[in-house]
Amino acid sequence: xxxxxxxxxxxxxxxxxxxxxxxxxxxxxxxxxxxxxxxxxxxxxxxxxxxxxxxxxxxxxxxxxxxxxxxxxxxxxxxxxxxxxxxxxxxxxxxxxxxxxxxxxxxxxxxxxxxxxxxxxxxxxxxxxxxxxxxxxxxxxxxxxxxxxxxxxxxxxxxxxxxxxxxxxxx
Length: 171
Prior knowledge:
disordered C terminus
């Protein structure tokens, strides 16, 4: 049961983060347009803030896309495979995705650490740049968790569904 609560909490955090970031970006961009074209003014920092918010939205959105199965899947070949081969292909795909996540997590952690060592601030925002890029390892950690969940479901969920079908039970 604790896993269900943790999973539910993770899902809510993803959704709240994405909705908040999208609303924030929309309001900031709208305000900037009004300031620029109506009052001939504007905020110098708004483009940089919107850029970092968009990057965070994409990184959290990747995890959400895996959870909701919203990514584009090319299954022309795998659909024609027998169930066992299809499962093996899915496990290989998840393993490749986890390898990618691991490399990106490692690289982004080094990137953030080096930015922290340099101590630079963002260009137009008086905030340490490493704090703004910390979303990279967080995003790839979330994505890795989602791929681990997908892999778990492929290995254990598919087997349970097949066993239930054999026994006449519905999953």
